[in-house]
Amino acid sequence: MHGRGMFWAGHRHGRKLPRQLCIWRNSTMCQARFGIVTAGICSEEQMAEDRLEKRMNQGIFITGTDTAVGKTFVTAALAWSLKERGVDVGVMKPVETGVVKGRTSDADRLAQAAQSADGFDLVRPYAFRFPLAPLDAARAERRTITLSVIMQAYRRLQSQHDLLLVEGVGGVHVPITPTADALDLIEKLRVPVLVVGRVGLGGVNHALLTLNALRQRKIPVLALALNRTTATGTAVARRQEHSTVSLLRASVGVPVIGPFPYVPGVESGFSQALSKLAAHGEMKKLTKQVLASARRSRRPRV
């Protein structure tokens, strides 16, 4: 039975099946159709359908506990790390403020890290000049942010990539429209959240406030990633850092990854800085955590 579209569901005369046929044989779809059988018919279309079922094809929202905690750099390094592992990763920055013509923006950095060829109307549906909360930045230009526009861009990008990293703006309670903040957007996207927090003084309070806000909405949290935004130069700063990490690991109830190293020269040598962070052991740990989460999940319905 070696004709096109045919296979043996079990081993025949001690020989192993080709890899693609083993995938089909072990799939839920095959077992549901044939039960415990010795043979079945597997069309190319059915095998393609099964491969599609196994694709990650979901999103992760990256938020910060505050502004300037390094979530763009962490998101970009994560995209870089995933690309190195052969993952077709897309990036999105739904709203960006403080965008100045001729200067590299956060969305530019994300697209560079992911080697993205997606249109910027999808990667960044809204860009505003003034470095304000999205609601006021839009008002200053007499424009309106609509969540439906963001959702449409998200769906298109999600359908084109195995995994989509969506970086927020500011923290979870930053207002986006007069009636919606970042938490409302996350709820609509129906994706797990990676929280990026600072490792120094103040990091405990900000992290707990953010995680509690997500829990109240029953939004799943993938991990808390702690980032160094400055060099740890003094003994007091090192003790503060150690205290922050140990207190959070003991209290947050989600995986705590980091601290990531402080990488100088990000503005002048972005690619080199990304490569350095992507190679760090804690970023590798985060990458594995993201992949494990994505494989456990199926594409959310949005």
Task: Describe the structure using short key phrases.
alpha/beta, single chain, Rossmann fold, 2 domains, 13 helices
Q: How does this structure look, described?
A:
By secondary structure, the chain is an alpha/beta fold. It folds into 2 domains: 48 residues, no CATH class; 242 residues, Rossmann fold (3-Layer(aba) Sandwich), CATH 3.40.50. 45% of the residues lie in helices and 16% in strands. The longest helix has 17 residues.
Question: Care to give the gist of this entry?
Answer:
By secondary structure, the chain is of the alpha/beta class. 45% of the residues lie in helices and 16% in strands.
Give the percentage of residues in beta strands: 15-25%
Q: Main β-sheet: number of strands, strand sense, barrel status? A: 6 strands, parallel
Estimate percent helicity: 40-55%
The CATH superfamily of the largest domain bears the name: P-loop containing nucleotide triphosphate hydrolases
Which geometry do the CA atoms define?
globular
- CATH C-level class of the largest domain is Alpha Beta
CATH architecture of the largest domain: 3-Layer(aba) Sandwich
Distance between the termini: 43 Å
Give the radius of gyration. Answer: 22 Å
Counted by DSSP, the helix tally is: 13
Q: Looking at the chains present, what oligomeric state does this protein adopt? A: single chain
Structural category is: alpha/beta
Strand order of the largest sheet: 4-7-3-10-11-12
